[in-house]
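re: ur question from the group chat, yeah i did fold both. here u go
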Amino acid sequence: MKKIFLSFVDYSLFLASITVGFVTAAYPAYLIALLRGQNGRAAFQKVTKYVFRIMFYLSPSISKITVIGKENLTACKNFVITPTHRSFLDYLLIESLIHDIVLFTNKPLTRLFIYRHVSNLLGAHIAADNSPASYFNLFDDFKRFLREGASVLIFPEGSRNSTDKLLAFKEGAFKLSIASNIPVLPIVILGSDKVYKKGSMIRVDAQPHEITIAILKPMSARENESSKEFCERVRGVLQAAYDDFGLELKSL
């Protein structure tokens, strides 16, 4: 019962944070940016980055968030971000570190307009359907966003993983990186799956857990390297980092 109660506290905190933070700060920042002819999405996310940080700080589910490699965030103007993926928290964790992000999703968070608008401001772009043409259109959109200075977030495993071995990577992020000449930013997230069960907001247990985010050095495709080869090289780097940081945490 305790973990159910704490899950309710977490969910209430999430709703309170986004309601207060978004309405009082993020939306006004968005509207001011629009009036000035600036990037409204980037302005909105610049505020929500701190809303999520406050939410994580207050959460009874998370004892500590450690970020390693922050200096790599400023190595380039923007990136194709390719994190490991084990929990729905992963997206929010990335959004608490980086703003002006766009990402792909194949389903809306809700059909209510206001919440869909919020998800769009948080960067979500929804494929019209599962057809190749729909994905191709998004690919072109993402190339445009990268040219405009935004970063694109793609979980290369395609779905949340529940093992210590990374799933096979999909090549889309790496094709996008090569086509746009924008580096990939690999990120390892450890501990997010210890907080919530896969596909659920019910706590795994009643204990708070530490989360570690390791931001690795940006990677670009080598000369004449195919997207498949680049994809496998990045996967190898992420797997090695995941193994190393995982062992380090277990030894503490």
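okk and heres the other one u asked abt
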Amino acid sequence: MTWSDPEKLKRVKDFGISGIAFCVARESGSGKLFFGNSDFKVYEVDALAEKPEPAAFEAEGHQSYVTGIVQNQTQLVSGSYDGNLIWWDSESKKPTRTVKAHERWIRNVTASPDGSIVASVADDMVGKLWDAKSGETMHTLKDHKEETPDHYPSMLYAGAFSPDGKWLATADKVGHIAVWEVASGKKAAELESPGMYTWDPRARRHSIGGIRSVAFSHDSKLLAAGGIGKIGNIDHLGGPSRVEIFDWQKGESLHVIEDNELKGLVEQIEFDPSGNWLLAAGGDHGGFVSFYSVETGKLIKQDKAPMHVHQLAMNDDSTGFFAVGHGKIAHYEFKSDHPPGPAEPPLPEDAA
């Protein structure tokens, strides 16, 4: 059972920041957030303070947009368009390790559920698994093509671990998804969602779209991909937000969800721990937070966010979340008449 009822979602507050926050990590048990910014810096802020005041890490770090960040105990790992991964001590706010991880822009950094492994994906079309403690490369994942079908450079936007830690999904601009076995680094499955990709052969000779987010359900059986549908005006993200849900082990597409009410890119997806709904967040010039039924694909609840949302950080008990994006951070809660109960443990595999 879940106490996170989308119908009771409320935006508690939002506050301004300078620039664009592309990524966020939350310290467990608190409202302390760490976010990567378009000014090349990492910031810390207590989002629950009466007047939140973001403070930048002053030590020299990245040389371009900070597009991924994860936390593990007292350390942070951030990734950037400069191709570097930087390990930070979150107390001293100083870097402890810098690794030249990719030859092109890093688009996403994510961590395994236990925090022991970090994954990065970048526009060199390579995914990498890293030992979070030593910083050593564990596996290099090569499957995504460097060029689109129209012979332009592709991008590798998204990566996500399964909640059981056994799988990693990576997804690119043309809608290709690969699922990898984390232990071996071997490809376990592949899926296609070409409806996420638009090519304009006349007015712009330019492509746009791509899968911008992936997420596994909490039983690790379903995989959702988020992006944007076919775009009429590629200069203005003029296309429906789009989510496709797969039974990835069977290679079956279960639902294709396109939403023309609040358009734009789906930058992040989160599944409800009880399996009832999924949350899709993103935007175009504005932003949205939308909830859909996992069973039917139907819209449950939608909120017009105060900014284009780039990433979310959920509460420990999934009773709320923090959203970061263009010039703002927003705090949402699922307001309920009942206190949250203890989380139900997952069923053993042989009882599922």
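fwiw on the second one: The chain is about 0% helix and 55% strand. The two ends are 16 Å apart (CA to CA). idk if thats what u expected
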